[in-house]
């Protein structure tokens, strides 16, 4: 018999070895692929923040002032009613994102809002929509528009409020969230920006009206926009269209978590005591954090985007958030 006519192939052992080698290669390659994907998503998030920076600067060029973080919120409407002279209506609860819509190529959406009425948010002390009019309901319906420019692609959290948590949005199901918050000193917006201690003041706040002259520490040393997560364990995250009693913005100094960035654990005060931890979901509302491992991205006052390590020195973190405390920031 001619030996050359025999059909040759892998033995069972050789086949198993080949399969094992392929499995090892896949196991080695998978983390690299995931890292590459996260790098791409982080770059897109960075681009989002850059576009926000351009929108803020264009707005300032037009009006010589930055937009407020939020007009009077639901909770503040009771505490500050009637509104102080020169301040906005105490129930409008509009966000600065609304003011920036024309600079996001959303002029058509902007033109549909009635800014004389609230954006539908429920008053935390009642079950009724603030304003109680058809105009309020129209504004609330517009809040369901999902804006990709205000969403971090690394965050796979819910992009809208649904079901029981719809009152945390704009009082309607499917009102949309955002991954970014204006830098504020008080996330529940009960203190009018102009009455805050100048040494502790952030670039934005309740009825804020800051301009570049107010940033005495320098725009390159001052944070303007802070990343947050689309979902939180306690409270609520940010809505782009309206603010309720805890949706006025993000405090980079993170008072609820003692300054910890990416604090994903909450909440030991529950009864019975129970702490839940989930990467990419912050423990408390109004805190800084992201779905990016190791830290978060911020937009500086000069339009630059910086990545802040979650292990940043607390003093530097505080100085970055304030606009005129007179302290040197240093390297970060």
Describe the structure in your own words.
The protein is globular. It has 332 residues and is of the alpha+beta class. It contains six helices and eight strands. A four-stranded antiparallel beta sheet has the order 1-2-7-8, covered by helices on one side.
Mean pLDDT equals 82
Largest sheet: 4 strands, antiparallel
What count of helical segments does DSSP give? 6
Q: Which range does the strand content fall in?
A: 5-15%
Please mark out the parts with pLDDT under 50 across 5 or more consecutive residues, or reply none: 74-90, 124-128
Q: Return the structural class.
A: alpha+beta
Task: Sum up the overall morphology in one term.
Answer: globular
Note the main attributes of this structure.
26% helix, 332 residues, 6 helices, single chain, alpha+beta
Short description:
By secondary structure, this protein is of the alpha+beta class. It has helices spanning about 10-65, 75-80, 95-100, 105-110, 135-140, 315-320, and strands at about 180, 225, 230-235, 265, 275, 280-285, 295-300, 305-310.
SSE map:
Layout: H1 12-63, H2 74-79, H3 96-100, H4 107-112, H5 134-142, E1 180-182, E2 223-227, E3 232-234, E4 265-266, E5 276-277, E6 282-284, E7 295-300, E8 305-309, H6 314-321
Parallel strand pairs: 3-6
Antiparallel strand pairs: 1-2, 2-7, 4-5, 7-8
């Amino acid at each position: 018999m001619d030996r050359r006519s025999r059909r040759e192939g892998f033995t069972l052992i050789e086949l198993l070895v080949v399969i094992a080698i392929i499995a090892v290669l896949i196991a080695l390659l998978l983390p690299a692929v995931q890292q590459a994907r996260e790098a791409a998503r982080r770059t897109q998030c960075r681009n989002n923040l850059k576009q926000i920076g351009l929108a803020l600067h264009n707005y300032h060029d037009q009006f010589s002032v930055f937009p407020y973080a939020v007009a009077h919120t639901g909770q503040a409407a009771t505490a500050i009613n009637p509104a102080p002279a020169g301040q906005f209506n105490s129930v409008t609860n509009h966000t600065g994102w609304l003011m920036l819509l024309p600079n996001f190529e959303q002029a058509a959406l902007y033109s549909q809002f009635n800014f004389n009425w609230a954006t539908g948010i429920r008053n935390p002390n009642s079950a009724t929509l603030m304003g109680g009019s058809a105009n309020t309901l129209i504004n609330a319906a517009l809040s369901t528009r999902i804006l990709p420019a205000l969403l971090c692609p690394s965050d796979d959290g819910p992009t809208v409020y649904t079901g029981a948590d719809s009152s945390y949005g704009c009082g309607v199901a499917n009102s949309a969230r955002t991954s970014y918050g204006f830098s504020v000193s008080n996330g529940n917006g009960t203190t009018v920006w102009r009455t805050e201690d100048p040494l502790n003041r952030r670039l934005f706040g309740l009825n804020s009206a800051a301009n570049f002259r107010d940033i005495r520490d320098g725009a390159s040393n001052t944070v303007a926009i802070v990343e947050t997560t689309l979902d939180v364990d306690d409270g609520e995250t940010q809505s782009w269209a309206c603010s309720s009693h805890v949706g006025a913005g993000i405090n980079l100094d993170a008072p609820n978590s003692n300054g910890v960035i990416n604090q994903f654990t909450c909440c030991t005060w529950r009864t019975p005591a129970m702490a839940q931890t989930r990467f990419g979901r912050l423990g408390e509302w109004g805190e800084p954090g992201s779905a990016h491992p190791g830290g978060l991205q911020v937009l500086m006052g000069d339009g630059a985007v910086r990545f802040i390590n979650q292990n940043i020195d607390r003093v530097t973190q505080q100085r970055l958030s304030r606009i005129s405390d007179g302290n040197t920031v240093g390297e970060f």
